[in-house]
Design goal:
The chain has five helices and two strands, in the order E-H-H-E-H-H-H. By secondary structure, the chain is mainly alpha-helical. Strands 1-2 form a two-stranded parallel ribbon.
Amino acid sequence: MKGDMMDYFSFDTDEEGIRFFSEVIEYMTGDLGISEREAVTRVNLKFVGMDLPQDHIVFHRSAEYWARDIVFGHDARWKPDADSEPLPAPSVFEHWLTGRWWWVSYWRRRRRRQLADLIRKNRDA
């Protein structure tokens, strides 16, 4: 990947996270045969607006797990490889959208609201 890697991602992470998601993208491009642009867009669409510090649960799975989950969908791990169909590739609009600050900002606010609602709901239960 060229340039500043933080510019590639539509979510917040630390240096370890950057290395981890770079491995995910490398697996997607090398073993799954998709372009780097498509791989970056798929990762961004999956995690847009999230805060992913080093101790986040996302990092408890391997780069291969996330690459396959992002490309084939969450249910693909229960199917044999021969039955796995890749999810549709991101559109040109989705490539463009993941690079826009207002889109990322919207998702950050939305995810924070969801988390606050979940915490409030569990506290009141």
